[in-house]
Amino acid sequence: METLGTLLQIEQDIRQAQSERAVEFIAVNDTCRLLPYRLATLWRTGHDGKPSVRLVSGLADLANDSPFRQWLDRVIAHAMHDDVPGKPRILDAESLPEEFREGWAEWMPAQVVVVSLPTPKGDICGGLWIAADHPPGEAELALLERLAWAYGQALWAWRPHIPFWVNWREKLDEQRLRKRLWLTVLVVALFPMRLTVLAPAEITGKDAKLLGAPMDGVVAQFYVKPNQPVQAGAPLFALDDTVVRNRNEVALKSLAVAQADYLRETQKSFGDDDSKADLAAFNAKFEEKAAEAQYSADLMNRSTITAPEAGIVVYSDPNDWLGRPVQTGERIVQIADPKRIEISISLPVNDALNLEPGAKVKMYLNASPFDTVEGVLTQSSYEPFPVPEGFVAYRLKADPLPGEDTPRIGLKGTAKIYGGWRPLIYHILRKPLSVLRRTLGI
């Protein structure tokens, strides 16, 4: 009963130990209460699986370069080749190679007891090398076996945190799991997914009429506000007509002079043959001045631009244009039907896909990010062009699906364009391979 009480007391001390070092100290110093010995050594296994002496009974520390420790490390590594976890064994000098017998005779008694410390997983976290003066009995070996399991479990509980990839590496060592993992990776890599690309987009009027400057000049006045509905023929804006008005007045004066000269020569031609010969020249000059007067009048009439059809007027702000010089053909406003819209997309060249008309398009509006406008691709340009955002892009156009709410012209957002189906591995490697080809030319 005294022996069993000692065993239970040692196990309780192990459970109440506050550190791994405390468990090791109990293993080399308190085991003698059940199995008397001269010397006890605790060794632990490292990451490489090799045993290394950690603690010796009666010593605070053991130098790494001491001959005794070096001999212990080598003899323990040899003795534990055929070890059974948790099962004590008795060794003597005759069971060891010749190279270890000299050290045995110097430091060890006739026999030693060795036992490994097993973990709950069945591994070995260390062991005890016990130099006893008298051979232990079967009862003492049975108690030592029980203590070995207790020491092993306690040291395993105090083990440091192992990164998760280490456990995965150990699991991958199993052939069946490795095959299943490779099969899963292959299935996931070949899983078909639809190619998609994101690009900035804007709601624009479908078949909108673009109105530009009919001639070089300066914008003088706007008759309508942005997004104002207008009818066909309503004036929209006017250019400064000072130059063309003065030119028209000069042309009218020149026309009047040419007309007077022509009439005078016509009257003189009735009695003067020389005047009759010059009549054709005065007539040509009169027609020239009449053409110049008509041209200047047309320019003056064109200085005021009117709406070619009914719709809303789309432009930025009158203050952005008033007093600004414009060139012939420069776009100023457009007339659009608010009920007929389309999605204009600027697809960057680096993100371009092989898109065909009929591809699915979804637009997420910045003003309403939870709502989408679904459409169908109708046009894709072949030639890219620079956009104000600072990149080169292809121009795409899409029509909203029937039944979709009609958003306001001018709203911006992000369009998601759907392409063909490709394996998942293609989605992952498409961008890196594209960059690699542009960089290295392969």
What features would you describe in this structure?
- This protein has 442 residues and is of the alpha+beta class.
- It has 3 domains: 159 residues, 2-Layer Sandwich (Beta-Lactamase), CATH 3.30.450.40; 112 residues, no CATH class; 82 residues, Elongation Factor Tu (Ef-tu), domain 3 (Beta Barrel), CATH 2.40.30.
- It is 37% helix and 29% strand.
- The radius of gyration is 50 Å and the shape is rod-shaped.
- It starts with a helix and ends with a helix.
- The relative contact order is 0.10.
- The model has no long low-confidence stretch (mean pLDDT 82).
Label this structure with key terms.
10 helices; 3 domains; Beta-Lactamase; alpha+beta; six-stranded antiparallel barrel; 442 residues
Task: Detail the topology: elements first, then pairings.
Blueprint: H1 2-15, H2 20-29, E1 39-45, E2 51-56, H3 67-79, E3 89-92, H4 98-107, E4 111-118, E5 124-132, H5 138-157, H6 164-172, H7 175-189, E6 192-205, E7 209-212, E8 217-222, E9 229-230, E10 235-239, H8 242-268, H9 273-302, E11 304-306, E12 311-314, E13 325-326, E14 331-336, E15 341-348, E16 360-365, E17 372-380, E18 385-386, E19 392-400, E20 412-423, H10 424-440
Antiparallel strand pairs: 1-2, 1-5, 3-4, 4-5, 6-15, 6-20, 7-14, 8-10, 8-13, 9-12, 10-11, 12-14, 15-19, 16-17, 16-20, 17-19, 18-19
